[in-house]
Design a protein that fits this description.
This protein has 116 residues and is mainly beta. It is built from 1 helix and 9 strands, in the order βββββββββα. The radius of gyration is 13 Å and the shape is globular.
Length: 116
């Protein structure tokens, strides 16, 4: 069982010349929980910023392992950064029923991060 579980009602997948962003949120209210992956430049070209539910719980190269499946994304945070993330070790993201953009966000995340 993960330390945080996010049932994504909102999925974001954006890429341009400067940034690649993938996000999953419970709602538009940041207090409801979210996970954000941001990479400078094109997908797969640099370190990934990971943020979980608040910008103070974020860091570059924080991902120890990631598993991206059809209905589940599981992220494990590097042990040395667990304290920085408020003692969060694992985050699971699942799509809410009928959520738009899940497949696109998941596909872009796969391009950003190879599964480990």
């Amino acid at each position: 069982m993960a330390d945080i579980e996010i049932r994504a009602e909102i999925c974001t997948a954006e890429t341009d010349a400067e940034n690649t962003i993938v996000g999953f949120a419970v709602s538009e209210d940041e207090e409801d929980g979210y996970i954000l992956f941001q990479q400078d430049g094109a997908p797969g070209t640099g370190p990934v910023w990971l943020e979980v539910s608040d910008e103070i719980f974020g860091a570059h190269d924080a991902i120890e392992a990631i598993d991206i499946a059809d209905g589940l994304i599981r992220v494990s945070i590097r042990p040395g950064l667990v304290a920085k993330f408020g003692m969060i070790r694992d985050v699971e993201v699942r799509p809410a029923k009928g959520v738009a953009g899940w497949s696109e966000a998941r596909a872009l995340l796969r391009r950003m991060l190879p599964e480990t």
